[in-house]
Write a structure and sequence with these properties.
Strands 1, 2, 3, 4 and 5 form a five-stranded antiparallel β-sheet that branches. This protein has about 180 residues and is α+β, with helices and mostly antiparallel strands. It has four helices and seven strands, in the order H-H-E-E-E-E-E-H-H-E-E. The mean pLDDT is about 90. The radius of gyration is 24 Å and the shape is rod-shaped.
């Protein structure tokens, strides 16, 4: 029988080259499973802050630093007393990849009242579209910040320390 002895290192004990290799390997395999929950929670918070009601908002995102990346969401929303339907369209996920439609208001026999409702509704629609884009931009920015942190050496070191990961001298993780 042969016995083989290998040296194992904590992340901090690795050479800079081995640290970089370990971090790159980790980032290549990281699917960002936590991201969806974090971004959906942030969407819910932003809808509440902007007094937008919805019980069926669905978030879509693509945050890979590529053309067409971004964030959008769809569903039925009520904002400033007006209902909106937002549907995703196309292959991209950004604030311009949706169709926003205002639901029709019931007509009354009073032309002045109808004109007033139309003006108020159009203003609410303009406001909703502006707030919608702002929410998408905030969620996108937050998503990239989360990804950047999770791919940082600092976050990887914390993960290694918490899980007591050890490494071979070349940066390969030892299970």
């Amino acid at each position: 029988m042969k016995t083989k002895t290998i040296q194992l290192f904590d992340f901090e004990e690795l050479s800079e080259d081995a640290k970089e290799k370990a971090l790159n390997r980790h980032n290549e395999n990281n699917e960002h499973d936590y991201l969806s929950e974090d971004l959906n929670e942030y969407l819910s918070q932003l809808l509440t802050e902007n007094k937008i009601n919805s019980d069926d908002a669905k978030l879509y995102y693509s945050l890979g630093y590529c053309q067409g990346d971004g964030v959008c969401f769809e569903g039925n929303f009520e904002y400033q007393g007006v209902r909106f339907n937002v549907k995703h369209q196309g292959n991209y996920y950004h604030s311009n990849s949706v169709n926003i439609e205002m639901e029709d208001n019931e007509d009354s026999d009073d032309d002045l009242k109808n004109d007033l409702i139309e003006v108020i509704s159009e203003k609410a629609e303009d406001n909703f579209k502006e707030v919608y884009k702002e929410i998408c931009d905030k969620i996108e920015k937050s998503g990239y910040e989360i990804i950047d942190y999770e791919q940082s050496e600092e976050a990887f070191k914390e993960l290694c320390d918490a899980n007591e990961y050890t490494f071979r001298e070349n940066g390969e993780i030892e299970n």
